[in-house]
Every structure is written in structure tokens, then in C-alpha cells.
């Protein structure tokens, strides 16, 4: 029996004064910079005119409208900063034949007056053309995204399916978890393990993304062991981008279904300040704030601070749902060509280590089997990183993103192993993990022309390191009576070691992707070479026989073509591959062959000119090879010979239909099949992959400040075992909300009431012999002030 090598300190109690002090600090920071809010022209690097105008609008905090086709292919000389906004815009547009006109709604870029002196009247041109993939956007519609190209590029011109969940969608639905935030997204399935607050369970096109495609600001959030996974509060995000299909060319080892990229809130003059308090059922109490602004007159120094404090329980009353988070960020425009953004985050949380209810044979009871004091997942994490950009000239831009972080996890729960009448005999389980990780992405973005071909060439190298320590133990625990439970019994820390391991992973890749514009054609081609090295040491074995040192490498590629019609219709076709090393090894210690993904996709996007609407339809054929199957010659071994195919259709609509009405809608059909297997399930449907998913959410602001929102999410039936004999029935969950915006002297104050699973639909989802109950109804009342 080996003692644990470390004893993680328990989380400090959540002090009741933490949030008020944090809010006061943030308010004082804001007040200290409020005197510097006078508008003046920011400094802007030379480069493509559309990017210069978008950056100008973001840094100046103004609405700037222009037609994308009017500035396509034009360059701007940049701006040193200072002076009036009008003078700054005039300098940015010099030599372009365009001029900026001031209107009641902001500024609009139009052709400059001709020599004849004819003055063109300002008109309303697509204001959404000025959006940035990193800045706040109003409403549900996002015109640009960065995940598919690592550049700020219009979604309409990208030959791949992309969905964006904006901060306003997150706020209107009052969700805390990323899993809940993407629940209305086409092709995305959540809740396969019911309510499990330990981590986000997200599947894209039938493939899990939890461990393999979890990204924050374009950098992988590395996880290892059992539960050492970085967690992200949805309130700290500006948006969530879901990129569908294999994406190894830009991101390396990844799920073939796609990736979920969380984009942090960062300093921006377009961001509104907010303070909010919440109260709800299950003793939900929460306070949060989002405050930022200028630290100097010209706006070269911007700050933003996001904080969350939550003291709550789940529908199992013994399970906590506590979080405290502080996330400061700072942007420094060093000179017109150089910019640095520093992002930091510290978070502590406590929830259930085992949220499962006791299962009696095939029947899932309503009895929780743990102990309130012992059963817990305590996690402390922090990250610190930066995003650096330097523009050398009109052609070359250097960018580097880097983040370092640590996660310490204590995971303890009680597991029944025998039933004696109404009494359950239990044993204690403890999993103690430490993780530190480093992620970096260094790239050169090149803008140049070869004849009529306009190129945006992204070439780079990314690297990731993750160092883990895992101690897994079990020990004796007291019994519990199901009909007279005592949830406060003394339980000793487990000390019988089952695993004591150290792990070190190195991942790196060289990539190249060219985005080409030829008149109305948009072409893309990418290539990448990946290397991965994984070392594991077993400290329970005296010699080195159980240690592993695995190496793997792969080459992946992508191709895309899109045609952009004048009326906003854009048909496209794409091809992409991916690879993902297996997490387990063969009995002799050698690694299994990595799984490989391949996808063909065709689709069409429609963005009516001048509107805030995006309609997308896509068809895909996605194959994953080298899935582990049983070795028929030796049932104790596995072989990487399996194959799974997903063939599907996705429809999605996102629109700010009017100033008062916003909408998201989606439908997904996935014909998934196990096409090669030695496990006897060839021709069957894979586990937990519904054929049908559908959703609709509407939010409407009535006159006199009132507003209502509501939506429904449908998850179709699916199978919970490989032989397709256990079927999970489909279910529909309804969400709703009402809100009231005060006016007059209370302008910016909103009172809201939100309900998730409004009708308290109870459903059970089973997989491989285990059953999970879905989340019960949750109710939240909130009061917020924005300015």
C-alpha cells in the first residue's frame, strides 16, 4: 500500500465579500480611465483596407459601415494615431477613391465625390461588414470567424461549415457552461451523459470533442489523465466558434468531427460594461461583472476584467456547483505596426465527483450513492498568455500566440459494490491529478498577388507540451441505507494505490495554408506535417518494463473552392483529412495506429446583402479509420482495423431579423454506421449518435421595454450499446425567458427570468450498461446594469 505522493490543498471557502470587493476594484479601474474616453483616432498598421477599417472601428469604438466589394484588393497606408476620427479615416482611405461620411448611426464609406462636384447621398451599406472575429458583435449574427483560417475572414467566403454562438446568445439564454451554449448549433449533440458538471460533453457530427478538440483562443486546451481538463465559464467568452469536419491542417491531432474554439473576452471599446446578480432554484446565487475601457487618451492601452462568483447546488442537493473566476486582460498598441494582448485567468470550482444516481440492474433509481463531505471534484486552474502581432509591411505580418497553465484536481467519490436489502456497501475512490501545459502558435501571414490571384498565405509552427501526474487509489468506506441515508459519515482518504503515473507529451506541427481570391472565386489549399511524442512512467513498477515512449507522425491536407455570387449566394465544396493518436497501447507497450479522418463536403451559404442573416446548408461524408476492434485470434487484444462513417445534412439559420427580433434555427440528419468491425456490430449504428437533431430559439423585444424569448431542442433516439439492442428514446427540451429593460433614469438596467427545461422533462440516456439522468428544470432570475 503506497501513500499518495501529494495531498492537494482543499479550496478555500467562498468568502461572501469576494465579489463585492472585486466589483468595487473593477469599478475603480473603470472610473480611473473614464476621463480618457474622449474619441481620437487610434494607431493602425498599414495593410489591406478592409482589415484597417475594421480595426479602426473596433479601437475607436464606432460603427463604421462599408461594402466589402468596394474595398476588396485595396491597401491602406496605416495611421500613426491622434487627431480627430474624421482626419484618421481620411488618411486611412487616401488613394482608394473612397471617403467616409458621418451619419446619425456612425460612419459610412462611399465612393469619393467626382470632379464634377456631384455629392453622393450617404446610404446604409452592410454595417455587418465591419465586424471582427475577436471583437463584440451586437445580436446573434456574426459575419466573420477565425477558426477555419487563423485569419479574420468572412464566413461567407470560407469553404467550410462554421457556426458562431455570440455573447448575446449566451446572455439571452443565461447559460454558464459551454455545453449549454452550443446546444442550439447545427450538428452538435450535448448531454449524452446527462447532467455531468465535471466537464463539457460535446459531439460534432457524431464524434466526441471533449478531450481532442477543446480550444481556447485558437490554442489547444490540453487535458490528460482522467479529469484534468481546463474548464471555461461561458460568461468569460466573446463567442464560441464550432468548426465542422477534420481540421488537422491548422490544429494538428484533432477529432474528425470538428472543433470547438472558445474566444475569450478581451479589451475592446465596442464592449459594454456590465454588473449582474442572479438567484435561482437549487440555491443558485451568482454575481458577475465585465468591465473595461481606456487607460490612456489615445486608446493605445485598453483593459478588461471579467469576474464570476457562484454558490449553487444541482438537482441532487448534495452536489455543489460553485465557481469563482477572475480574468483580467490588457491590450497595448505599442506602435501603429505592433500590438500585444495579455490574457490571464484564475478559477476555482467545486462540483460532484460522481453525479450518477444508483443503478439497480437496468433500473436507474433516484437515490444518490455518495457522501456530501467526501464526494467532490475540486479544481484549481490558472492560465497566463499573450497574443502578439507585428506588421512588417503591406505583405508580411508576424503573429504569435502563447499560453501556459496549470490544473490541480481532487476527485473523490464512493462506489457501491454490494447490496444487502436496503443497505449498500461501498468503497472509496480517489483520483488526484496535477497538470501543467504550454501551447504556442507562431505564424507568418503573407498578402501578395500573382497576376490576378490575390493570396493570403498562412505559414506556421505550433507546439504543445503537457506534463501530468496521476495518483489513483481506493479504500474502505462506510455503508449507507437507501431509505435512511446518512450523507455525513467519516470517510478516510483512499491509500491503496491502483495507479501512480507520470506523463509527458510533446506535440508539434508545421503547416501551410493558402487562401486565394480570383475574381469571385475563393480557393484554399493546406498541408501539414505533425509529430507527437508521449512518455508514460509507472511508479508502481520497480523496473522500466511498464514505461512507454510512443512516437507518431502524420501528414494531413485540405482543399476548398467557393464561388461568391453578387446576390450573397456562395456554393462551396471541400476536402479535408485528420489524424488522432490512440490514447491506449498494445499489451507489449507499443502504440496503436492513429485514427484517421477524411471528409468530403458540399454546401451553400446565403447572406443577403445588407442584412444580418446567414443561411447555411451542407452535405458531408465523413469517415474515421483505424478504430479499435477486438482481435479475433486473441480476445484479450485489440486491433486498429475498424471504420465508422457519418453521412449527413445540416441546415442552419442565424438572423437578426429586425432590431427587435433575433433567431437561431437548425436541423441535422446524421446517417452514421459502423462499416468495418470484428466486434459483431458491423452495419450497426455507433453508440449515442442520434439521426435527428433540431432546434429553434427566438427572442423578441416588445414595446415599452418588455421582451420574451423561447426555444426548443430536439434530440432523436439513439442506441446505447454496440449491438443496437438498447435504445434511448428521443426527447424535446423547452427553454424560455422574459426580460424587462428599464428606461429613463434607469437606462441600461434589465430584469430577466430564465428557465431551462421549462417543463421539467425527465429523460434517461444509457450507454454501455450505464444510465444517466438528464438535467432537471433550472430557474434563474437576474438583475443587470449595462453601460
TrEMBL record:
CDD domains attached to this UniProt entry: ligand_gated_channel
Pfam families, per the entry: Plug, TonB_dep_Rec_b-barrel
Gene3D superfamilies in alphabetical order: 3.55.50.30, TonB-dependent receptor, beta-barrel domain, TonB-dependent receptor, plug domain
Keyword NADP attributed: no
Keywords, ordered alphabetically: Cell outer membrane, Ion transport, Iron, Iron transport, Membrane, Receptor, Signal, TonB box, Transmembrane, Transmembrane beta strand, Transport
Keyword Transport set for record: yes
Record-linked SUPFAM superfamilies: Porins
Membrane topology listed for this record: Multi-pass membrane protein
Residue stretches making up the Secretin/TonB short N-terminal domain: 62-112
Signal sequence, start to end: 1-36
Main localization, broad class: membrane
Localization, UniProt: Cell outer membrane
Record-stated family: Belongs to the TonB-dependent receptor family.
PANTHER family noted in UniProt: FERRICHROME IRON RECEPTOR-RELATED (PTHR32552), FERRICHROME OUTER MEMBRANE TRANSPORTER_PHAGE RECEPTOR (PTHR32552:SF68)
Name of this protein: TonB-dependent siderophore receptor
